[in-house]
Hints:
single chain; mainly beta; Rubrerythrin, domain 2; 4 strands; 0% helix
Amino acid sequence: xxxxxxxxxxxxxxxKRRNYSTIKNKRNHSEKLEFNKYxxxxxxxxxxxxxK
Length: 52
């Protein structure tokens, strides 16, 4: 990985469980990431936001 990329964790907006991890380039995306992803605990698609 380069100097500007970091590993980030995505947490479910409903149950707050940390389900996914991904890589983010801080130079291109300074704001927090948000994706609609499937949560296997909620059993539906929910908004997943970047956490620490």
